[in-house]
Write a structure and sequence with these properties.
This protein has ten helices and seven strands. Helix 8 (305-314) runs antiparallel to helix 9 and helix 9 runs antiparallel to helix 10 (347-367). It has helices at 13-35, 160-171, 177-186, 193-206, 208-219, 269-274, 291-294, 305-314, 320-342, 347-367, and strands at residues 134-136, 143-145, 223-234, 242-252, 257-263, 280-283, 299-302.
């Protein structure tokens, strides 16, 4: 009796169909990456006489649970006029009184017509001159002079507000230092880019203790979200070159605080250092670096439904029936969270809503069997 080797065995129809399905999905994904737009939207589609998952038509969420991607123009019953947006009350007001050209000395004031106009005064440089009188004690017993107030950069020309403005412009408003040099030059003040860079570095050193306190507060939370994102960084060793660094983001959703940790690499060293003493719920994506943390007894690993959903989005053209079944249930989960945010529910109220609505949906997803692909024809 001859023994059939792996090389001699002919693949079955199911195996060939599965391989064809995988290759089709890879081709669709590649075409979308090269030619298409990156989208993760889903609009439920129901067709007549369409075979669905397990032969049952999937339930369409209620109107309030569906995610709408089309914008309808409101029906105009009459001509609508633009509504002037109100200016917040905390913005300072500068009253400009405009009197009529006519003589009003014998008239009675009956009110005012007020029109508000939002204006801006561009940032301008000015100089603080610290003038400290010096006094000589009698009988040549020395000189008396007031001490200088604290300054961020000793013997530097930059005040604390200018240093803060430089840092915020660069890291919050994404205004490079060379453009800030150009802004100062328009006011007739020439400041070297290296000088402004020194202000930025000095300011960052001063707020390091604050960053440390934020880190401590975030890592003391019982619920932590962690993710990482790549960033191109100028290489200090090779002029004009960049390397691929990573910002690791540690977010405490209970307090809204976030801590950023920069690492040159994408390995475990960064999170190992930061969350080595963490205990509680750790929510991450499917990156394998986080696997070892979820295995700790003091940590409960929590997945990210948004990352899981992406795989179903990618498979829509290959297996639309099962994908629609799954995405419809994900929509129900999203609707619960959206409703909780809109109604500003407390943590306890959200927990009850999730137990009542989300838990059955999650159980249904977990218990659903994988149906062979050849049943979907």
């Amino acid at each position: 009796m001859s023994v059939e080797t792996i090389a001699d065995r002919k693949p079955t129809y199911e195996e060939l169909a599965f391989q064809n399905e995988q290759l089709t999905l890879e081709l669709i994904t590649l075409r979308r990456l090269i030619f298409g737009q990156k989208r993760e939207r889903f609009v439920p589609v129901r067709q007549e006489n369409q075979l669905n998952f397990l032969g049952v038509q999937p339930p369409i969420p209620r109107a309030e649970e569906q995610i709408s991607y089309t914008r309808r123009k409101p029906q105009k019953t009459h001509k609508q006029h633009p509504v002037r947006q109100s200016i917040p009350a905390h913005i300072p007001r500068n009253d400009i009184v405009i009197e009529p050209e006519e003589n009003v000395s014998d008239m009675k004031l009956i009110g005012h017509e007020v029109t508000e106009e939002l204006e801006i005064e561009p940032p301008k440089l000015y100089v603080n001159r610290y003038v400290r009188p010096k006094y000589a004690r009698p009988k040549d017993e020395g000189i008396v002079i007031a001490p200088m107030p604290f300054r961020p950069i000793e013997k530097g020309i930059a005040g604390p507000a200018l240093i803060a403005y430089t840092i915020i412009s660069k890291y919050v408003d994404h205004q490079p230092l060379y453009r800030q040099v150009q802004q100062h030059r328009r006011q007739g003040v020439e400041i070297a880019e290296s000088t402004i860079n020194g202000w930025k570095q000095a300011g960052c050193e001063m707020i390091k203790p604050l960053a440390g306190r934020i880190r401590e507060s975030v890592l003391q939370s019982s619920y932590l979200m962690v993710d990482e994102t790549p960033i191109r960084v100028l290489d200090p060793d090779v002029k004009g070159k960049t390397h691929r660094g990573y910002y690791w983001v540690y977010y405490d959703p209970l307090s809204g605080q976030v801590f950023f940790d920069y690492q040159r690499g994408h390995g475990r060293d960064g999170p190992r250092k930061q969350i080595k003493n963490f205990t509680g719920f750790l929510q991450t994506d499917g990156y394998s670096v986080y696997d070892e943390f979820a295995l700790r007894k003091e940590i409960t690993g929590v997945g990210c439904m948004a990352h899981a959903r992406r795989y179903f989005i990618e498979a829509q053209l290959v297996d639309p029936d099962r994908v629609q079944w799954m995405l419809l249930r994900l929509q129900q989960l999203y609707a619960v969270e959206r409703s909780a945010r809109e109604n500003q529910l407390s943590h306890e109220e959200r927990f009850e809503e999730r137990k009542k609505i989300s838990a059955p949906v999650m159980k249904e997803i977990k218990n659903k069997r994988t149906i062979p692909f050849h049943l979907f024809k």
